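A quick aside before the break. I want you to see a complete sequence-to-structure record at least once, exactly as it would be stored in a machine-readable document. Don't worry about memorizing anything.
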Amino acid sequence: MRGNRMETGAMGEDIAARYLEALGFEILERNFRSRAGEIDIVARDGETIVFVEVKARRPGPFGVASEQVTARKRRRLVNTALAYMAARHMTGAGCRFDVVAVDIPRHGPPVVQLVEGAFECWR
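That is the input. The structure line, written in tokens, reads:
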């Protein structure tokens, strides 16, 4: 079961990265990790640094992927983004947090949804 969830997550991140590139985003880094947590994708959209949380789901009883970013997860993402920007000397750069929801049905192509500015940058 866990391996299946990890495979779904990896597949979702690959789909999300290709989707963002097709929209003109430049992927800067994938799976950035710090003591604060992990960010799935760090990208640039024009002059803006975008921290992307990817939520990939197969059909099930827990709702669609975009509903899965909790308040606790948002706090961890913000803290991890601060660590990323400090490590890259980008503390003055503009940023936002997006969510890419990837719903992977049993049959047919994945359904991808980008939620730009899904939550506030700093707290």
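Two observations worth writing down. The domain at 2-119 is CATH 3.40.1350.10 (Trna Endonuclease; Chain: A, domain 1). The chain has two helices and five strands. We'll return to this after the break.
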